[in-house]
């Protein structure tokens, strides 16, 4: 029912009526009555103030999600290292330390900067290493966007560089023989432990973390096998161990039925950092000029096995790799093999 003005006024979908000195707004949608004074204005809703989420705080939440997803400790450590590198650069480049305020131009500046492309020793990083950094940023900011910490993903324009992986940096066979011979001459308990560890990595192709994670019950002397419980993606698998390396393991754990295989002098599990230092010391004592990382021992095993068999599937199985693409890096022809093949044509 309509009333003549000024008693009522129809505006749009709402109805305004005069009642007891107040203007009452009746909304057709919810039929509610809201009293307003004649001269009052509709107040603006208060703006919700958002506290900035720093890169460090977002990284903590990202790491928590990675742990919940079951990602390996090495993967988490790499993500943490890469995001912290970005945070350090942002402080010096006057970039706002707020996940929601970082733009794709900021990430482009970072990836083109010396901070992202230079190693701590001052040498340039390989393009494959920078690709790993690019991937870490894409995953991190993708998480931040999906979690609602940022309105848009500033990493959506990042692309990996097109490059082929270089040859594996394997320990040469002569250097491997020098290393094992030098360690074997020392009869101290630490040297016996190091000998068993390095021989296992060279003879079975184990990663350092997988070898250090072995416990005494994981050794099957009868079948000459070990159960490796610390693989990538938290997998578990069995590895064949040659008889010579198994003899070293058996002698190392003689009289023990539990606990870690590789122990420190204090009786604790040997850490990766400690093992790396020991390997570097043995390289010096063996007269090996070009020092290598522990992973070079695994590469040496894989390349030696491929040269002797020419079977990539066998190498893949021996290394415990899930994808043949990871094994293809060992399928490289030597100059001598090329020369022999050409002479045979």
Overview of this structure, please?
There is one protein chain. This protein is α+β, with helices and mostly antiparallel strands and 345 residues long. The chain contains 14 helices and seven strands. The strands form two sheets. It has a four-stranded antiparallel β-sheet with strand order 1-2-3-4, with no helix packed on it. A three-stranded antiparallel β-sheet has the order 5-6-7, covered by helices on one side. A hairpin with a 4-residue loop joins strand 5 and strand 6 (225-228). It is globular.
Main traits of this protein?
345 residues, alpha+beta, DNA polymerase, domain 1, hpI Integrase, Chain A, 3 domains, four-stranded antiparallel beta sheet, 47% helix
CATH top-level class of the largest domain: Mainly Alpha
Q: Which stretches are low in confidence, meaning pLDDT under 50 for 5 or more residues running?
A: 1-38
Count of strand segments: 7
Tell me the name of the CATH homologous superfamily of the largest domain.
Answer: Intergrase catalytic core
């Amino acid at each position: 029912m309509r009333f003549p003005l000024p008693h009522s006024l129809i505006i749009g979908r709402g109805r305004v009526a005069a009642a007891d000195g107040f203007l009452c707004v009746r909304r057709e949608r919810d039929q509610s009555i809201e009293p307003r004074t004649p001269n009052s204005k509709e107040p603006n809703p208060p703006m919700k103030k958002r506290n900035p989420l720093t890169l460090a705080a977002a990284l903590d939440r990202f790491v928590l999600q990675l742990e919940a997803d079951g990602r390996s400790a090495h993967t988490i450590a790499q993500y943490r290292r890469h995001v912290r590198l970005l945070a350090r650069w942002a402080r010096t480049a006057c970039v706002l330390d707020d996940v929601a305020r970082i733009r794709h131009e900021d990430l482009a500046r970072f990836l083109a900067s010396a901070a992202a492309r230079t190693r701590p020793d001052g040498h340039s990083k390989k393009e494959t290493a920078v690709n790993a950094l690019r991937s870490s940023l894409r995953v991190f900011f993708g998480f931040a966007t999906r979690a609602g910490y940022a309105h848009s993903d500033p990493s959506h324009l990042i692309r990996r560089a097109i490059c082929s992986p270089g040859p594996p940096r394997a320990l040469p066979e002569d250097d491997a023989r020098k290393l094992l011979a030098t360690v074997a001459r020392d009869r101290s308990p630490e040297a016996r432990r190091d000998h068993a560890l390095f021989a296992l990595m060279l003879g079975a192709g184990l990663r350092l973390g997988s070898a250090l994670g072995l416990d005494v019950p994981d050794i099957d002397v009868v079948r000459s096998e070990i159960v490796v419980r610390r693989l990538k993606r938290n997998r578990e698998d069995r590895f064949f161990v040659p008889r010579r390396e198994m003899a070293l393991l058996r002698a190392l754990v003689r009289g023990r039925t539990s606990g870690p295989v590789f122990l420190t002098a204090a009786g604790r599990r040997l850490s990766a950092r400690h093992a790396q230092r020991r390997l570097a010391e043995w390289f010096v004592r063996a007269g090996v000029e070009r020092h290598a990382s522990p992973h070079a021992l695994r590469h040496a095993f894989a390349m030696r096995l491929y040269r002797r068999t020419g079977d990539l599937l066998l190498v893949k199985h021996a290394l415990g790799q899930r994808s043949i693409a990871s094994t293809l890096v060992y399928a490289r022809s030597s100059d001598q093999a090329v020369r022999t093949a050409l002479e045979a044509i």
